[in-house]
């Protein structure tokens, strides 16, 4: 009875929503990852999910070494690059969220991994490449200031 009264008062049922979520995509093939990010964006908008933002993170370069059996001698060495893309969604109803994630998981290409997590400020910082010149100027400024001496 109370549910019907609530429905009549508001005109629509109240469905819980997720906080701002990041759909994080990682893979070794740049072209596949870029195309999948476009697909994620398109599927989300097709399901009336509000996409707030999408961005790339600087790639990680990994050095992988394979050793000869039972020795410490390097047999082969590989350099691998891991690319990362993010799609941020907001106001995602909980009833649509599980369906969206299931569809995205089903369409996930081979070699691409997907994680979904709540957006935090530290995720915002990782998307920017540090400016070497700016960092050098900051260190020079610190050197000019000298040691910090506190007065009592």
From TrEMBL:
Record Gene3D superfamilies: Ribosomal protein S10 domain
One GO cellular component term noted in the UniProt record for this chain: mitochondrial ribosome
Family annotation (Pfam families): Ribosomal_S10 (PF00338)
InterPro entries, per the entry: Ribosomal_mL48, Ribosomal_uS10_dom, Ribosomal_uS10_dom_sf
Keywords: Ribonucleoprotein, Ribosomal protein
Domain Small ribosomal subunit protein uS10 residues, every copy: 22-117
Keyword Ligase: no
Superkingdom, taxonomy of origin: Eukaryota
Keyword Transferase found: no
Name the UniProt record assigns to this protein: Small ribosomal subunit protein uS10 domain-containing protein
Taxonomic lineage from the root: Eukaryota, Metazoa, Ecdysozoa, Arthropoda, Hexapoda
């Amino acid at each position: 009875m109370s549910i019907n009264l609530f429905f009549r008062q508001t005109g629509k049922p109240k469905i819980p929503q997720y906080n701002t979520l990041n759909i994080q995509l990682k893979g070794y093939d740049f072209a596949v990852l870029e195309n999948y990010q476009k697909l994620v964006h398109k599927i989300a908008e097709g399901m009336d999910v509000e996409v707030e933002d999408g961005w790339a993170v600087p790639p990680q370069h990994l050095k992988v070494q394979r050793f000869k059996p039972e020795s410490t001698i390097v047999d082969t060495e590989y350099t691998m690059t891991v690319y990362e893309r993010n799609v941020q969604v907001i106001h995602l109803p909980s009833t649509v969220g599980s369906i969206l994630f299931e569809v995205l998981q089903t369409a996930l290409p081979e070699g691409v991994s997907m994680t979904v997590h709540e957006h935090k400020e530290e995720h915002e910082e990782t998307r920017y490449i540090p400016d070497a010149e700016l960092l050098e100027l900051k260190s020079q400024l610190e050197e000019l200031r000298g040691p910090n001496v506190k007065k009592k």
